[in-house]
Amino acid sequence: NVSLCLSGSSNRRPGIRHSTFESLRLGRSGQSIASGFLRFWDSLNFKKDREFVQITILFLDEKINSVIHGFTPVERANHYMPSLKAGSIVKVDRFEVTRCSNMYKITDHSFLLRFISLTIIDGVITGAPEINLDRSTISK
Q: What's the CA gap between 40 and 75, in Å, rounded?
């Protein structure tokens, strides 16, 4: 079990806002989320000799049991790999929000986050929303 609760003074710039998963809008924009970073894994295409296609990521929202998944395209995977630390709380800026196909749906959320060339991942040290990362409470 991991429980992260960060509050107090912020290392983020004043006035920077983040969205909850419920307020995400389709398309590319300057949206930001602050979320728990649950886990990630390499996604492979088994029909093409286990070809690496993307890194799949699970994010946890401020509201318990609200999980959304995202991915980094193969050409950006090495760029984001150093920022991916399971159990951390991160702020993700500038990404694309798309509808999640039922064929590839791994969470209950109808959207997914796609990292684009402008996407930035920052670790949030203080001033983050309270996010409970107790994995035993997340429905499987």
A: 17
d(C-alpha 9, C-alpha 52), whole Å? 40
H or E segment to which residue 78 belongs: helix 77-80
* This prediction's pTM: 0.69
Contacts of 22 (CB under 8 A, 6+ apart): 61, 63, 66
What is the spatial distance between Cα 68 and Cα 5, in angstroms, rounded to a whole number? Answer: 19
Which stretches of the chain are assigned E, i.e. beta strand? 27-28, 32-45, 51-60, 67-73, 89-99, 111-123
Residue 4 lies in a domain: no
**Which CATH number covers residue 70?**
2.40.50.140
Beta strand 27-28 with 89-99 is: antiparallel
pLDDT by residue, tens only, the chain of 140 residues: 333 333 333 344 444 456 678 888 899 878 888 888 888 888 888 888 888 878 888 888 866 568 888 989 888 888 888 888 888 888 899 999 999 877 667 787 888 999 998 999 887 654 555 556 565 555 44
Domain that holds residue 46: 21-134
